[in-house]
Automatic annotation (TrEMBL):
<dbReference type="Pfam" id="PF13482">
    <property type="entry name" value="RNase_H_2"/>
</dbReference>
<dbReference type="InterPro" id="IPR038720">
    <property type="entry name" value="YprB_RNase_H-like_dom"/>
</dbReference>
<dbReference type="GO" id="GO:0003676">
    <property type="term" value="F:nucleic acid binding"/>
</dbReference>
<feature type="domain" description="YprB ribonuclease H-like">
    <location>
        <begin position="26"/>
        <end position="194"/>
    </location>
</feature>
<dbReference type="InterPro" id="IPR036397">
    <property type="entry name" value="RNaseH_sf"/>
</dbReference>
<dbReference type="InterPro" id="IPR012337">
    <property type="entry name" value="RNaseH-like_sf"/>
</dbReference>
<protein>
    <submittedName>
        <fullName>Ribonuclease H-like domain-containing protein</fullName>
    </submittedName>
</protein>
Length: 373
């Protein structure tokens, strides 16, 4: 067994306190000779952690066919000092593989059962739609954030390199194996800022400004957030154009200028006046000539208003207007008031969250990335 330790630096890091204090996190990635513990072995375990204001990397390398148990024992002794293990697809591959290999040697795996898992692949799945990513492979996420890496090989290619190393003891092959694992490990803390695309929708918002363009009949709302995203993104959604830049959300939405209907509840309490094309409460309608009034129905129990209206994603505290009773699209009247605008922004952003950052159902989960890609 060979244990390698070194320090490194990264340009920025995600505020992990919502997960755990940074000192309690350990990032994990393993390298194996195959996909199944029954026929394969672990030849390299890598961990990244933050200590004394520095980032550290530690690797346990199996330099012979007989040292797998030794690296497992030493790694288990190390990891018991941490509260959360952060991985990429580790809940599907790395952690189960470690447990099965350890069990084969009769090792106690309680340390893995007692540590909380935070699988970045699982948590980042919803941002694929928002960022319009082709897939969720680690290399794709690195590319999106312009994270450079020296190693360009795949995990599958490393299997052959490891076997060649065992046969030859070539130090150059040894360095290639370590570098592949090292680049994967260093990428894990560096892709964590992608979580901010989820956090920003749950952050505290304050209204930075708004403007209604009479020429284009469009409303622009700018919201300041307590979270900052690493790369600006813009999406065209069914209800609005959504842009996220640094710590701001910008909503551009087309207003409707014209006449809409406000439908009263309890239509049985209203008369419809065909000559005036509106409904009035029976307390008022009782004074209208019976020849000019009829019992209102749900679809005729309305009053009309001409104004500037904004589309809503769902019913809320606002007065609701529609083109017709059966119309699905809801509107509310535009009010040039900061409190109204911020409340309206919340309504629209709830819809944006569903459209741009969908949560995959258990039945429609994306397949995990290829383990040796």
């Amino acid at each position: 067994m060979v244990v390698i330790s070194k320090t490194f630096s990264i340009p920025q890091f995600y505020d992990s306190h919502a997960i755990a204090p940074l000192k309690d996190l350990v990032f994990l990635d393993i390298e194996t000779t195959g996909l199944t513990p029954a026929t394969s072995s672990i030849y390299l375990i890598g961990a990244v952690y933050h200590q004394q204001m520095e980032w550290h990397i530690r690797q346990w390398f199996s330099d012979s066919l007989n040292s797998e148990q030794e690296i497992l024992e030493d790694f288990f002794s190390f990891i018991k000092n941490y509260q959360v293990v952060v991985s990429f697809n580790g809940e599907t591959f790395d952690l189960p593989f470690l447990k099965k290999c350890a069990a084969a040697y009769g090792l106690n795996t309680d340390v893995l059962d007692n540590i909380r898992s935070f699988d970045l692949y699982r948590h980042l799945r919803p941002v694929k739609t928002l960022l319009q990513l082709e897939n969720l492979k680690l290399a794709t996420l690195e590319s999106y954030l312009n994270i450079s890496r020296l190693d360009q090989a795949t995990g599958k290619e490393m299997i052959a390199v490891y076997h060649d190393y065992l046969e030859t003891g070539d130090k150059r092959l040894y360095q290639v194996l370590l570098l592949h694992n090292e680049d994967d490990l260093k990428a894990l803390p560096q892709i964590m800022p992608l979580l901010s695309y989820l956090d920003i929708f749950r952050s505290e918002w304050t209204l930075a400004g708004y403007s209604l363009s009479t020429a284009s009949s469009s409303l622009t709302i700018v919201v300041d957030c307590s979270v900052k995203v690493p790369v600006a993104v813009t999406r065209e959604l069914p209800l609005c154009r959504l842009s996220i830049r640094a710590n701001q959300i910008i909503i551009e939405i087309r207003a409707f200028v014209g006449e809409l209907k406000y439908f009263f509840d309890n239509y049985k309490d209203y008369y419809y006046l065909p000559d005036e094309d509106r409904a009035v409460h029976k307390k008022v309608g009782q004074y209208v000539d019976p020849e000019h009034r009829v019992q209102a129905s749900a679809s005729t129990c309305y009053t009309k208003k001409s104004s500037t209206f904004l589309p809503l994603s769902h019913e809320d505290m606002f007065d609701l207007y529609k083109e017709e009773y059966s119309s699905k699209q809801l509107f509310t009247e535009y009010i040039a008031d900061p409190d109204f605008i911020l409340a309206y922004a919340h309504n629209v952003l709830e819809d944006a969250l569903r459209c741009a950052v969908p949560v995959p159902s258990e039945e429609a989960q994306e397949a995990p990335p290829e383990l040796f890609s």
